[in-house]
Amino acid sequence: MVELADGSVRKCFPRGKKAGAAVGDNVIIAPQGTDDGVITQQLERRNLLYRSDHMRTKLFAANIDLLLIVVAVEPAFSDELIGRALVAASSANIQPIIVLNKTDLVAALPEAQARVQQLRRLGLTIVELSALDAEHVNTRLLPLLRGRTSLLLGQSGMGKSTLLNILVPGTNAFTQTHSTALDAGKHTTTSTRLYHLPAGGNIIDSPGFQNFGLNHLSPGEIERGFPEFVRLLGQCRFYNCTHLHEPGCRILAAMEAGDITRARHNLYARLLEESRT
Predict the structure, then answer these.
(1) Element housing 204 (H / E)
(2) Could you give the CA distance from residue 142 to residue 199 in angstroms, rounded to a whole number?
């Protein structure tokens, strides 16, 4: 679907077999009949957030200002998926914000806060709220979104649809409680869609994801996606240091000193290996 300047929408198809447009892209269309159209040109985009592995590529959205990575006190969220999303955001020059949802679950809140505190130390913005409290959402999150295009991203069960229903009243995005027995969410959004915020700006909702391949990134893009690495880059003994085993590596020295966590370095090593396959 393509939204026109007057707010109406048309079901549009790419010309030929090409299908490269993503939600958030600006395109030129040629109307076909009263409701359909053909995409004749895709205009230049500022950025594109996507994931890829050796099998396929999945587009999230284009022309994004903010990436809202939604995690929750319950069910448990994946540190690795967050780390991968942060590297992807860095490569596309998109500002990430971590949204810790379900802070009303006070018994499990301290553990979740301790986990996101590690991200706060990296210089990331953390917004804590309960999507069950509309005032919480509107006072803590909405001011950051005005006049910008934001993408909601997160695993299933984190409460993205509940947040969306508050930010864009009348959306009626389907919500579902997570399975306590499995400690996992169920997919409630099946397609990516852009909504206009009443106070100005846009927000894009995307389906929950359980993997985030970054095979399309170069080694340089991967290392720059780790904020704790950036200040040390260029200080290693060897100019082509991979930060995996070389003597005189400032990244490895920082890890041994406790300034870089072993878990984060292990993620870096996995991403580097994936980029070579």
Answers:
(1) strand 202-205
(2) 9
